[in-house]
C-alpha cells in the first residue's frame, strides 16, 4: 500500500518517487546543503525519534538539504508505530542519499529493506547516528544480515553495525536513567573542531542520561564532546560527584569506516539526541554541524549555524512505547 507524501508549503513540490510512508522537505535557498540529499531514518521504542527526525529534517532543509524522513509503519493502518520493528518502508530513498541520519533501536528489518541499508554502507557514504543507533539492529540469528546485530558474534564483524561502523554498541546506562541528565563539555584538544563551531561550553544539554562507552573507542574514533552527569534533569543542575564524572564518557565522537569499494566514509555519533534533547539550541547545533561535517561541508559551517525550531515542536517525554498513537506521516508535515 502506498501512502501520501506531503511537505510544508514553504518548500518546493515533492518528487513522487522520494519515499513511501514518509515526509520529504525540499531544501530552500543557497545554503551549504544545496544539492545534497539527507535520508533520516527513525525507529526506536523510547526516545521519540519519530518526533526528533522530522524537526531535524525541517532545520536541515532550511540549510539547503533535501530531506526524506522515514518511519516504522504499522502495516494494518499506515500509522507510525515504533513497536513495529520489522517495517521501515521507503528505504529506496537511500539510493540517492548523500548522507543518512539514524535514530534506530533494535530493528529486525526484512532482507529486502535491510539490503537497501547495507548497499548504502557499502558505498562508504557518510553517517550521522543518534542515541540508541549504537544498537540499531537486533536481527534474529540465521538471517541474511544477522551480523549487523548489536550483539553479533561474527568473528569478522563483532558486535555488529554499532561497533564496527559507529564505534560502539549497547553497553549500559552510565548516568541514572530518567533522573540524571547530560551536560556536554568539549573534549581536550577539540575546541576548534568544526562540529563545535558556535557552541559555548555548557550549551549542549539533554535530559537523556550518559551512556557507558568502552574506552578507548576503536580505530580512528575521536571524542569531541564528553558527557558530564548532572544531579537532575535541569540544565543548571550541578554535576554528580564521584566516579561517574571521573573519567567522563564521550557522548559525541567522529570516526571513519570503509565501504566495500574501499572508500572511507565519515561518521558522527552522539549518544544524545532524544526528542526532548532538541529543546537546547546547543544540542541542535551540534547535531546539525555534525551533519555538515559528515557530508564534507565543514568549510561551510558558519560561525553560528541557524538551528531555530521550525513550526510548532512539542516533544513527548521519553518512555518505552510512549509514542502518540494513530499518527500518520502526513500528520507531522505541519501546514498542508
Protein described:
The chain has helices at residues 49-61, 111-123, 160-166, 281-294; strands at residues 23-25, 37-43, 66-70, 99-104, 127-130, 182-186, 204-206, 222-229, 249-258, 264-270. By secondary structure, the chain is of the alpha/beta class. The chain has a domain at 23-171 and 251-332: Rossmann fold (3-Layer(aba) Sandwich). The protein has a 10-stranded mixed β-sheet with strand order 1-3-2-4-5-10-9-8-6-7. The longest helix has 14 residues, at 281-294. The model is unreliable at 1-19 (pLDDT under 50).
Which secondary structure elements does this structure contain, and how are they paired or packed?
Blueprint: E1 23-25, E2 37-43, H1 49-61, E3 66-70, E4 99-104, H2 111-123, E5 127-130, H3 160-166, E6 182-186, E7 204-206, E8 222-229, E9 249-258, E10 264-270, H4 281-294
Parallel strand pairs: 2-3, 2-4, 4-5, 5-10
Antiparallel strand pairs: 1-3, 6-7, 6-8, 8-9, 9-10
Number of alpha- plus pi-helical segments: 4
Average residue pLDDT: 92
Distance between the termini: 22 Å
* Spatial strand sequence of the major β-sheet: 1-3-2-4-5-10-9-8-6-7
The second-level CATH architecture of the domain at 23-171 and 251-332 is 3-Layer(aba) Sandwich
> Quaternary state, please?
single chain
Main sheet attributes: strand count, strand direction, barrel closure: 10 strands, mixed
Amino acid at each position: 500500500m502506498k501512502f501520501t507524501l506531503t511537505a510544508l508549503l514553504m518548500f518546493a513540490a515533492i518528487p513522487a518517487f522520494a519515499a513511501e510512508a514518509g515526509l520529504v522537505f525540499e531544501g530552500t535557498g543557497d545554503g551549504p546543503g544545496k544539492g545534497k540529499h539527507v535520508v533520516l531514518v527513525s525507529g526506536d521504542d523510547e526516545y521519540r525519534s519519530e518526533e526528533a527526525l522530522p524537526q531535524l529534517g525541517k532545520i536541515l532543509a532550511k540549510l539547503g538539504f533535501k530531506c526524506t524522513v522515514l518511519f516504522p509503519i504499522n502495516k494494518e493502518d499506515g500509522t507510525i508505530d515504533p513497536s513495529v520493528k520489522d517495517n521501515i518502508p521507503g528505504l529506496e530513498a537511500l539510493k540517492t542519499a548523500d548522507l543518512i541520519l539514524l535514530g534506530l533501536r533494535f530493528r529486525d528489518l526484512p532482507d529486502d529493506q535491510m539490503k537497501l541499508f547495507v548497499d548504502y554502507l557499502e558505498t562508504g557514504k557518510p553517517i550521522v547516528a543518534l542515541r540508541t543507533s549504537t544498537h540499531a539492529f537486533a536481527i534474529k540469528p540465521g538471517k541474511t544480515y544477522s551480523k549487523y546485530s548489536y550483539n553479533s558474534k561474527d568473528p569478522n564483524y563483532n558486535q555488529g553495525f554499532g561497533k564496527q561502523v559507529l564505534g560502539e554498541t549497547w553497553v549500559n546506562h552510565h548516568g541514572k536513567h530518567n533522573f540524571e541528565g547530560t551536560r556536554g563539555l568539549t573534549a581536550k584538544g577539540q575546541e576548534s573542531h568544526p562540529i563545535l563551531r558556535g557552541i559555548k561550553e555548557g550549551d549542549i544539554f539533554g535530559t537523556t542520561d550518559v551512556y557507558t562507552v568502552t574506552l578507548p573507542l576503536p580505530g580512528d574514533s575521536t571524542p569531541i564532546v564528553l558527557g558530564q552527569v548532572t544531579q537532575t534533569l535541569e540544565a543548571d543542575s550541578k554535576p554528580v560527584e564521584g566516579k561517574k564524572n571521573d573519567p567522563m564518557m564521550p557522548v559525541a565522537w567522529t570516526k571513519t569506516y570503509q565501504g566495500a569499494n574501499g572508500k572511507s566514509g565519515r561518521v558522527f555519533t552522539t549518544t544524545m539526541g532524544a526528542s526532548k534533547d532538541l529543546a537546547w539550541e546547543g544540542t541542535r547545533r551540534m547535531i546539525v554541524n555534525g551533519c555538515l561535517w559528515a557530508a564534507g561541508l565543514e568549510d561551510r559551517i558558519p560561525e553560528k549555524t541557524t538551528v531555530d525550531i521550525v513550526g510548532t515542536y512539542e516533544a513527548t517525554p521519553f518512555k518505552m512505547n510512549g509514542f502518540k498513537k494513530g499518527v500518520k506521516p502526513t500528520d507531522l508535515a505541519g501546514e498542508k
